[in-house]
Design goal:
This protein is elongated. It has one helix and two strands. The protein has a domain of 37 residues. It is an alpha+beta fold. A two-stranded antiparallel ribbon has the order 1-2.
Amino acid sequence: MRNSRNRKEEKRAKGIVSFKLKQIGVIRTPYIDNAPYQPIEEDEDDFRIVVEPQYT
């Protein structure tokens, strides 16, 4: 346990930070592969952001 704590302290001293990401939802678009880099004016397709209920 002490060895593990020392390693964490060394990483912090070096500016190394670790964190985990967790998916909280999905973005739904009609694009499968080639989404445009810039928005298309007046594009009225089915675009949705679906967030898991516990995060709303």
